[in-house]
């Protein structure tokens, strides 16, 4: 797998036209996050799409990422990998946000701007590079409808998109590997995006995803942390010898935002017979931690049930400042001064004493 971009002229025209439509739609709804970005000169926002990258066996033929740079004047420009690397704030962490399923392209941009402002507000005086990593999260049976959760074939949809989100982890790992040296990376995954995150961490540690390993793995270890929101993965998949059992080898800390009230994930075990509960619902069980051994020290949890409630969507998280404050340590690689938060109330108290 390679991440060099080779975008033809015709494809650039089509992509640019799509960006223009997004800007028109965005101005119609009034992106208040853009105003926040204008006041945040140390916030660098990018949207990098793998939606046109080949799936399955074709991945070895190369990746074709699309790069969008979001400017403070609300304009966006299509650029390439080198321009992306050159524009990163030197030494500042790179926070990669990965959305879940049923997210269309227009929502990626709108939600991305709001997410970036949400992350920025928690530590306004610290520089941060924010990258929204987008994958093909609709189809073949799904419809790109903002409030749609399931179609008439929910098991097929969930299975197809779950496997696709895991495969996108290979591209996420490639993107991280090619980043310039000196940048720590924090990862924020929502729903199936959490599966992309742990799959990426797994292959960065030498693991396999759907029979593939990362070509040209990183030669130097990079500091990485991860936060999983509404994590649509089996609660035991991070255990050694399980599906993503090497993920915790890559991350120095992984935080699971646990929500036992999530209505969507309550039916997660119905995907197929003998399926386990979702990590967001069950959390890391006592048995999981026993099997993890010392690695369990890298896995922590914050219970957000009282704040998010029965909701599942991305907006249920990025519209709540208390959550961004509770994960600011992970995003900015700060050291906690006391304890380990186990609930959103604990996290709020610890943040207030920083």
Can you offer a commentary on this structure?
It is built from 15 helices and 9 strands. It is globular. β7, α7 and β8 form a beta-alpha-beta unit. By secondary structure, the chain is an alpha/beta fold. α2 crosses α4 and α5 packs across α6.
CA gyration radius, whole angstroms: 19 Å
CATH architecture: 3-Layer(aba) Sandwich
Which CATH C-level class is it?
Alpha Beta
Q: Order of strands across the widest beta sheet? A: 3-2-1-5-4-6-7-8-9
Distinct helical segment count: 15
CATH topology: Rossmann fold
**Percent range of helical residues:** 25-40%
Structural class call reads alpha/beta
The largest sheet, given as strand count, sense and whether it forms a barrel, is: 9 strands, mixed
Q: Give the averaged pLDDT, no decimals.
A: 81
Number of strands: 9
Compute the number of structural domains. Answer: 1
Shape: globular
Strand percentage, roughly?
5-15%
Kindly report how far apart the N and C termini lie: 42 Å
Provide a quick synopsis of the model.
With 354 residues, the chain is α/β, with parallel strands linked by helices.
Topology:
Elements: H1 9-29, H2 32-38, E1 43-49, E2 66-70, E3 76-79, H3 81-87, E4 94-98, H4 105-122, E5 128-134, H5 154-177, E6 185-190, H6 192-204, E7 224-229, H7 247-250, E8 253-258, H8 263-266, H9 279-282, H10 286-292, E9 299-303, H11 305-308, H12 315-318, H13 321-326, H14 328-332, H15 344-352
Parallel strand pairs: 1-5, 4-5, 4-6, 6-7, 7-8, 8-9
Antiparallel strand pairs: 1-2, 2-3
Helix pairs in contact: 2-4, 5-6
